[in-house]
Structure formats: structure tokens, C-alpha cells
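PT: before anyone asks, these are the final sequences, not the draft ones from last week. 226 residues across everything. Please model them as a single complex and drop the result in this thread when it's through.
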Amino acid sequence: DAKTTQPPSMDCAEGRAANLPCNHSTISGNEYVYWYRQIHSQGPQYIIHGLKNNETNEMASLIITEDRKSSTLILPHATLRDTAVYYCIVRVNYGGSQGNLIFGKGTKLSVKP
Amino acid sequence: KAGVTQTPRYLIKTRGQQVTLSCSPISGHRSVSWYQQTPGQGLQFLFEYFSETQRNKGNFPGRFSGRQFSNSRSEMNVSTLELGDSALYLCASSIQSYTDTQYFGPGTRLTVL
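LR: through. Structure below.
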């Protein structure tokens, strides 16, 4: 089972920041937080991942709380092409089943004009 | 650099037949993982191959099998197809291990009639 909880859906106005929350209250010290997104009927696209520090790349920013029990993915200027299902996943970066990507139901983000 | 490619993109089979799906990883990537995505069960891990060996396996029946070739290309086979095998089959590649960041292909949409 997925170890994360996400809201099933969210709306965002085009051009505004989209802030997608994720709860992972049982995360362990060696588990990373990963974010993927899936645009309808395409393969999931990697967005970003982090362990404890905030991370930023060309797609998004990842903010992880100090206790690591929750995180927020930020798309700074959402466009219509950002409409997708966003998955938050926690996993270790070494072998065994704990290293598997386990996808939950994700958050369906709808960006509206 | 070219992404992960999967062939065919769409496939229609009948119950009892068998099917083979192909995946070419990103150049230089040696680990290939396979996933099944259905509306009811979501995205589920099937298995992972590295250096022509299956290293990690999900909870699927033995009808689902795979292999990897020396050039890291991978095939997945499903024998004795059932209606419930209708799904989007996704392949993901990573540099050395499934615990590295995985990059997904577009998927093969299999319909079993």
C-alpha cells in the first residue's frame, strides 16, 4: 500500500502557483520523497525528489517540513499542460521491496484558463 | 538523448492468447522495470531486470514473465491472456538500479477481448 495521502483533486488558475500537498506521517529516516505526474494515458513523468532539504529544478520546487511528515510540490506558474495526476511516493534508495515505487491514487490537478 | 520507447503502442488480443511487449531503455541505462496500470488497481510493479537477470518481482502470477537482453532491451510476456489483463503496460529505465530515478516510456495499451 502507498505510504502517502494526497487530496484526490485540486484546481488551479493558469499562471498561478499550484501547491500540491502530500502527507507521509510514517516516513522513515532513509526514505526519500518522489513526485511523478501522469498526463492522461501517457507514462508517468519524473518531476523531483528530496530527502530532507528543499529542492528546486526547472519543473518544480519541493518543500519538505522539518519533521518530514509532509511535503508540498510547487509548480510556480501553472499552465494548461500541467493538468495531470500528480503522485507523491516515499521510498528508500537501496534494494529490496522498500525501494519499489508504489503509486497511490494521486491528486488530479486541473489547471483552468 | 532519446527517451524510453515501447512497442507496440496498442495491441488487441483474445482470451487464451499470449503477447510479447518490447521496451528499449534510455541509452546507458541498465535497469528496466515493468508496471501494469488499470483503473481499478492503479499502477502496480511487475518486475525489474538488470544485466539480463530478474532482481525484483511484484505480486503477479507466473503468466507474467520477462527477459532482458545484453543491450539492456527488455521484453515482457503474458501467456494465457485473461480479460483482466487489459491494461496499460509501462516500462521504466534507470541507470543502475530500480532505486535510482526511473524514467517511464509511453506504455503499451493492451486490450483483451
